Amino acid sequence: MNCIAIYLSVFRFAKSKSIGVVILLLVLQGCAATYTTPAGGVNITALTDEDIADLMNVEPASGFPARLAVIRVQASGYFTKTNHGYGSGRYSVITNRDIESDEDLSRLARLPMISAIAPMSRLLLPAELTSLKDLRRSAARLKTDLLLIYSVETVFHVEGTPLGPLSLVSLGFIPNQKAYVSSTTSGALIDVRTGFVYGVAEITEKEEQRHTIWNSNDAIEEARLKSETASYKAFTMEFEVLWKSVVEGFGAS
After folding, report:
1. How far is CA 198 from CA 15, 23, 93, 251, in A?
2. Phi-psi sector, 11: left (phi>0), alpha (psi -120 to 50), beta
C-alpha cells in the first residue's frame, strides 16, 4: 500500500478528523523517502603510478595540430538516474553524455591547433581500470595525441551542511536558501605518448533556485544536472585559457 492509499484509509476509518490527523502524521513518518547522492569525482593526478622523480623526467611528445581524446572519469560504482560509470577498479569512465552538449564539444573542436575531437567509447576501454595508462592506451587506439581527462564532484548542501557522496537526503520542502547544489569540474591535459601533464583546469558552479522543493528524486536530479551542466560549460571556457598557454608554449616547437 502506498502513502496515498494509506492517507485515504486513515481518514475513512478514523472516528474524528483530529484523530485522523494524528494517525496520519505518524504514518507519514514511515513514508518519508530519501535521495542518495551519487559517488564522487576522482583526483586525476592520484591515478598515476609513476614516482615523482620519473614524472620530473617526462617530456611532451605531441605534435601540433593535435588530435584530442576527451574522457570523463568518476569514482568506482558511480551511478545516477541519467548515467552510470563503466569499468571497475580505482575509477569508472562515463561514456554517455548527460551534462555535455554538442555545442560544448564543437567549442573545443574550434580551438586553434586542434585537428579533431575524439570522444571515448567503452569498446576501447578495459573492464578493470587501475591507472591513467589504461586511458592513454585507449586514446592511443584512437590515434590521438592528447588526452583531456575531467571529473565532476557534486556536493549537496542542506541547512548549511555539505553532504558527501552516497549521503541520504530526505525528500520534502526545504526553506529558500537552505539547500543548493554545487559542482566542481576539474581536469588535466595529458600527452598520450609520454604521460606529460601540460596543465590542469578547475571551476566550481552553484545551482541557484528561487524556491527549493526537493519533494522527489526527479526534483533533486534536476538540480544536480543543472549544477553539473553549468560547471562543465564553465570548465570548457577555463580549458580554453589553458589551451592557449599550451599552444603558445608547445605549439611552435
Report:
1. 74, 63, 21, 12
2. alpha
**For residue 155, how far is the Cα from the chain centroid?**
10
**Pick the residue with more confidence: 5 or 122?**
122
Give the per-residue pLDDT at 4.
38
CB 98 within 8 A of CB 125: no
Lowest pLDDT segment from 19-33, 180-194, 236-250: 19-33
d(CA 239, CA 201): 6
Residue 22 sits in the same domain as residue 49: no
pLDDT greater at residue 14 or residue 200:
200
**H-assigned helices in the chain:** 3-13, 17-31, 52-57, 102-109, 132-141, 217-250
Dist CA 48 CA 53 (whole Å): 13
Q: Which domain holds residue 18?
A: 1-31
Are 20 and 125 part of one and the same domain?
no
Residue 65 DSSP SS3: coil
**Can you tell me the distance from the alpha carbon of 184 to that of 197, in angstroms, rounded to the nearest whole number?**
20
